[in-house]
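# nightly structure sweep
# worker-07 picked up a monomer target from the shared queue
# config: single-sequence mode, recycle default, output format = structure tokens
# input follows
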Amino acid sequence: MTNPTPSPEQLVADLVDLLTVEPSETGRFTGKAKADGIGRMFGGQVIAQALQAAQATVTDGKQAHSLHAYFLRGGEEGPVTDLAVEADFDGRSFANRRVVASQTGKDGETRPILNLTASFQRPEDGLSHDDYTMPQVTPPEDLRSDMEVRREYVDQAGITGNARDFMLRPRAIEMRTSDKLHWMNSEPKPPHAHTWFKAAAALPDDPSLHRAVIAYASDFTLLGTSALPHGLSWMRGELVGASLDHAIWFHRPARADEWLLYATDSPWSGNGRGFNRGRIFSREGELVASVAQEGMIRRRKSTPDES
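# output follows
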């Protein structure tokens, strides 16, 4: 007997629980493991948990306006994550936090998997301009959900086993893409993609949580943008890859349970790496956040002769 698909409300409740870090001692927090998780941890999860740990130590009204993270090792979904926070600076207008996320492996050794720094600012008025115009794309109401497209894809491609389970795993983030992502076709195309996303159900009215959910979702679709000009995909077993770093600048508050447009592009790839940028817009066209990431991207070697 198969397990019933969780409701959107349950999926979002599980995500909120996953991103709610627990204090363990002064300056340390525990990031929960994903329920029934197997394999590699999603990078957005450890970024969001580290941001939540940093936010929990800033209690004087300052808000996170940027973060910069480096992935050191692939995290695992099974164990919990230790989050050690250092308060490097507390000023009148700005503050800075440094977080080291670590996991204990099967051999009993604890190793860092991510370093993150986050900067905080007390809200203030200032000079204001926006030099980006929101791309004109199909609205989300006129697009199919990515999950519907995924179900169709795995059936047509005959994908089975763990790859099928991964593609069809229920998500707390609903996504709708107005053009084709790397796994949707094998034709080379310009390195640009546009995807609407939001939490699949309402979130609590906590601005820190909404920033964490945006950080979590910002790791979806980003690295794959650098694969588009090459017509290759991880899903078809043609590439191997991993995120190397991740940076976010939060420009203005936004709700993560309302549609946001993620416009990504990749201006360069080479030397086994791909560089990707993202702009997140509100439905009203305001620039909410900017994202940048570089990742390892290599063609999979299928035979010893190709090494």
